[in-house]
Amino acid sequence: MYDKNVKGKFYDIQGFSVHDGPGIRTTCFLKGCPLRCLWCHSPESQEFGPELNWMEIKCSGIEECGKCLNVCPHGAITPGGTKKSPTGDKDLTLVKVDRSKCDNCGKCAEACPAQALYICGKDYTVEELMERIRREKPFYDTSGGGVTISGGECLNQPEFLLNFLKACKDEDIHTAVDTTGFAQWELIESILPYTDIFLYDLKHMDSEMHKRGTGVPNELILENARKIAKAGGKFQIRVPVMPLYNESEENFDKLGKFVLELGDAVEVVQLLPYHNLGVVKWERLGRDHPVLEATAPSNEFMEMRKKQLEDMGLTNVIIH
């Protein structure tokens, strides 16, 4: 049994996803994360509450619109800079968001016809989300896919997560939980019977370096991985390959040894080369750029690290 009325707060739901577990999947992204990765490509996932985003490219200018200017109860929306119109024949005056006054009430987003201003963070009950999931079930059945629940850190909303996983299993839908592993074991243990595979992040094998890069140490993460394996859980290990942080031969040597320790629980190791495509998301939230920005690793470098792991005896390593 599960409670179909429990609510979860999401920042995105992506259909026809093919990189978040086996087959064609629907990936559901819950808000809230205890980590603060210096390179985070989804800063809208970090905070639990709703957040106002502003996308400059969609703004049609206050001359043509300006509907957002007079609806903010705190005066947080005012005229700002300018940009050229799409035809290049005139300047458009954009809006400016004073984040010190904004309380993310969403009134400006409701008034914005172009959706240049929009709120990130929407509540769904288990049943509301299942209504969408059911529509896409034929794709899961024909491809061996299912649902992936991600974040942020989905274990930050444990009541919703448990009830949603139970609902999926009641309808014979394959489930994947994408997690940092930074959670109390009791929470992970509660979802084990309803989780077909864990997409499990390993960001650095040295605890101090892990803390420098993410804000938290890694002992709990590694211990939870061992416990999941011992309990019969399955993994897709995911490794973000970060230049200037975790790309060293020494770190990958420790990584390979740890993954081998988990044994048959690991179905695949996925290497994820760093990219900076998420930088624009920081701008939409009015935040400074991520602390760690780097050049993406080359294909040759990624193949070298893949071969390093394979030479250690791992036969299921892929590059995303």
Descriptive report:
This protein is an alpha/beta fold. It has 2 domains: 240 residues, Aldolase class I (TIM Barrel, Alpha-Beta Barrel), CATH 3.20.20.70; 69 residues, Alpha-Beta Plaits (2-Layer Sandwich). Helix content is 30%, strand content 24%. It contains 9 helices and 13 strands. The strands form 3 sheets. A 9-stranded mixed β-sheet has the order 7-1-2-8-9-10-11-12-13. Strands 3-6 form a two-stranded antiparallel sheet. A two-stranded antiparallel sheet has the order 4-5. Helix 2 packs across helix 3. The longest helix has 18 residues. The model has no long low-confidence stretch (mean pLDDT 96).
The rounded Rg comes to 21 Å
Proportion of residues in extended strands:
15-25%
The strand order across the widest sheet is: 7-1-2-8-9-10-11-12-13
Q: Compute the number of strand runs.
A: 13
Distance between the amino and carboxyl termini: 37 Å
In the CATH hierarchy, what is the architecture of the largest domain at level 2?
Alpha-Beta Barrel
Q: Uncertain segments of ≥5 residues (pLDDT<50)?
A: none
Contiguous helical run count: 9
Sequence of secondary-structure elements: EEEEEHEEHEHEHEHHEHEHHE
Tell me the helix content.
25-40%
